[in-house]
Amino acid sequence: MISRFFSISKRTFSSLTEQEILALAISSEEDDGRIYRAYADGLRESFPASASVFDAMAEEENEHRGRLIALHKKRFGDKIPLLRREHVRGYYERKPDWLVRPLSLEKTRDMAQTMERQAERFYLAAAKNARDADTRKLLGDLALAEASHGSLAADLSAELTPDSVREEEAEKEHKQFLLTYVQPGLAGLMDGSISTLAPIFAAAFATGRTWDTFLIGLSASVGAGISMGFTEAAHDDGVLTGRGSPIKRGLASGIMTTIGGLGHALPYLIPNFKVATTIAIAVVFVELWLITWIQNRYLETPWGRAMFQVVLGGSLVFAAGILIGHA
Q: Is domain 2-161 classified as CATH 1.20.1260.10?
C-alpha cells in the first residue's frame, strides 16, 4: 500500500526523453550484469561450469552497456542522467534472488530467462518511442540480442556444461536437497509420529476423554517440534558437513515433527472416544507407510528393511502407550 502511494511520484515511461531512455537502459544493463556476476559467484563453488555460463552472460550485458554509453556520448555528451528502474512507474523489478545462498541451479536459470524476456520487452517499447534513427536501430538491435539470449544461454550451456557435467551438477543439487530438507524432515516426521504414540494413546486409554487426549497430543507435538527444530539448527552449522542452512534444516525438522505428532492427535477432536481412537490408529498406519515410502523413495532404503524398522519401532511405542494407559 505504501509503495503504491509513493509510486505516484515516479515518472511514467511515456514521459521519458530519449536521453532518459538511454540512461535507464544503461543503468539496467549495469544492474543485470551485476546480477549475473552474483549468480556466477553463488554457483561457482558447487557448479563451476554453470557459473561460467553466467560469467559469459554478464560480459554480454557489459558489451550492451558499452554500446549504449557510446551512443549517449555521441548524441548527448558525457553526463548521463541518474535514472534507475525504481524511478519509473510500472518498470520491471528484479527480486533479490541472487542474495539467497545456496542458489538453486534450475531457479537461477529460470530467473535469467525471465530477466531476458523483460529486457526484450523494454527495448521493443523504447525503440517504438525513439525518433532518432541511430537510437532506434540500437534499441531494436538490443531487443533482438535479448531475445536471442535464450538461445545464447542454451549454446553456452551446451559448450560449457556438457551432458556429463549437467548430470553431475544435477546429482549434486539433488544430494544437497536430501541433506538440507529430506533427511531432517524425515527424522522429524519419524520422531513426531513414533515418539508421541506412547503419551497420546496412554492418555487416551487412561482417561477415556478425547479433549484431554487432544491437549496432551497437541502439547507433545508442538514441544517435540520446537525441541527437534532447535536441536537440528544448533548442532551443525552446515559449513563443514555441507548439509546446508541450519535454519532451513531446523524448520524442516521442527515442522515435520509437529505434523507427525498432530496426525494422530487431531482425531481426538471428535467427541466419540471409539471413533476418535479408531481414526487415530488408522492415521498411525498411514504415517508409518509414509515414512517407509520416503525412506525408499529418497534414501533408497529397501522396502523390506524400511518397513521392518518403522513398523517394529512404531509397534513397540504404540504397545507401550496402550499398556501404560491401562495400568
A: yes
